Amino acid sequence: MIMARLMKLEVLTPEKILVKREDISYVLLNTVTGGVGVLANHGPMIAVLGEGTLKLQDKDNHVILVYVEGGFAEVKDNQVVILTPRAQRAENIDVAKYQQIRDEALARLDHPDALTDVEHTEKILRRAEARLRTAALVGKVDPYPLGSE
Questions:
Q1: Per-residue model confidence (pLDDT) at position 53
Q2: Domain check: are 109 and 82 in the same one?
Q3: Which of 34, 52, 35 is nearest to 129 (CA)?
Q4: Domain-located, residue 66
Q5: What is the predicted pLDDT for the residue at 149?
Q6: Residue ranges of the ATP synthase F1 complex delta/epsilon subunit N-terminal domain (predicted)?
Q7: Co-location of 108 and 63 in the same domain
Q8: Domain co-membership, 71 together with 126
Q9: In Å, how far from its chain's centre is CA 21?
Q10: Looking at residue 66, which CATH number applies to its domain?
Q11: Which residues of the chain have pLDDT under 70?
């Protein structure tokens, strides 16, 4: 009996289906407790995702990087479904925009006034930095070495 080596994957936001593929060989989830690698035939799992990078690898060993703003991942029956409030492919992240957002958040935190919502500003900073880290990985991530059995 030949075991499946590929998975279906969907990255869903309230607005759109960002990624829908049936040729995924490996997924690296950025969970709140650390990275979790998922290969075909992985056991059922639900994970809480942190803000950061979702790494996907297709059957041709192409790496796809996606920023996810938290959410949940369900792994079941060779299918991975990511539900997240916001997601963006790494190559589409506007680096200059998020550098400016990061810099403005840092300036507000360095010199808060009575109207500064520190917790909200820290969240903006975390999300901008996570997007910038994701964008910085484009072209720099090697495929996961999948052995031949």
A1: 95
A2: no
A3: 52
A4: yes
A5: 44
A6: 7-87
A7: no
A8: no
A9: 15
A10: 2.60.15.10
A11: 1-4, 147-149
